[in-house]
Write the structure tokens for this entry.
Amino acid sequence: MALRNSMNSEVKPEREAVPTPCDPPQSTFVPVSVADRIAAFLDGRTHGEDLLHELYDYVLEEPIPQSMRELLK
């Protein structure tokens, strides 16, 4: 959108929004719900990689308990 000044008899000029051809298109992206992504994964329409990352990536941030570290030695 470009702004265009229009002069009135008033002291302050008005500004009016005018669409220009170089404006980026408005996004019509609608996020898919987790339930829809689970259904798509179970139906075999997706591999579910993004879904698994969203559901379980926080676990990667958790520290490994000391007792488990000792078992892995």
User: Anything to note?
Assistant: DSSP finds three helices and two strands in the chain. The CA atoms of residues 19 and 28 lie 18 Å apart. The chain has a mean pLDDT of 78. Residues 2-72 form one domain.
